[in-house]
Amino acid sequence: MTPARKKAVKRALPAAPLLGAHVSAAGGVPEAPARAAAIGATAMQLFTKMGNRWAERECLDDECASFRERLSTTVVTATMAHDSYLINLASPDPVLRARSIESFTKELNRCRALGLDYLVSHPGNYMDEREAGIARNADAITEALEASPGSTLLCLETTAGSGTSLGATFEELAAIISLVDARYRDRLGICIDTCHVYSAGYDLVKDYDGVFARLDDAMGLSRLKVMHLNDSKTPFDSHRDRHELIAEGSLGEMPFRRIMNDARLVSVPKVIETPKLDDAIVTDTKMLDRLRGYIE
Ligand SMILES: [Zn+2]
Ligand SMILES: [Zn+2]
Fold first, then answer.
1. What is the pTM assigned to this prediction?
2. I need a surface site. Which of 75, 162, 195, 269 has the fewest CB within 10 A?
C-alpha cells in the first residue's frame, strides 16, 4: 500500500465501517471503483470477467494500472472478486474439473494483477459422493494456489445447501480448509453470506450468538474474512438462494443490526448483493445507509 493510500485509509476509518456492495464492472474493471464511490462504499466486490461464461481473459497492464489509479481516488479500502459460477472444483468429471482448476487459477491471477485483497468462491457440487467431493475440492484449491502465488486471500463462501453443493455447514468448509496443503492454508478464509447460512439452517434470527459460537467451534472466528449481507426471499432452512433487500426478507432487521454492532466483526469487510431494482446507485445507497443507520 502506498503512503498516500495509507493516509486515505486512516481518514476513512473513524466514520466508515468496511461496507460496500457488489458493483458492476460493465465496460471494464476500471469502471468499477467509480460505481463503488457513487454509493459511498468503503468495500467493493466485482467480477473480473463474465461470471456466467467460460471465456477467459487476462488483466492487461494498462487495465490494472487504470483500475488501481481510479481506486486510489476513492475511500474503498477492501476489494474482492467473486469467482465464476461455472467453476466446479469438486466435480467428479475430470474434464470439467480440469477446466475449473484452469479457470480458477486465472481468477487468482487476475486478482493478483489488480491487487485485490480477496477472492470469494463458492465450493463446488460433489455430484457423486460428499466425502470424495470435499477431497477433490481441497486438492483443486491446492493446485490453483500453487500455480498462482500471491497475497489475495481465498475465501470459501457458505452456501444455501441446495442439491449437491458443498459448503452449507461450517464443518464442511473447515474440512475443505484442513485438506488443503498446509503450505497454502494461511491464504484461506471464509465468507459468510447471511442469506445462505439462514437458508442452510443457521438461525441468525433466533440464535445469533449460537451461530457464531458454532462457527468459532468449527474453525475459529479468525477464519472469517468477508461477509455478504443479504436478506432472503425464502424462509428459514429453505436451502434456497434468493437474495432480498436488507430487512425486507425473512431475516428482517435484527440480525443486520447485531452484525453492524458486533465488535468481533468490525474489521471484516461487508458487502451487499441485494437486488438493485431500477437504479443500482439509488438502491445500493439506500441499503448501505440503512445498514450504517443500525450502528449504535
Ligand atoms: Zn454471497
Ligand atoms: Zn446467494
1. 0.94
2. 162
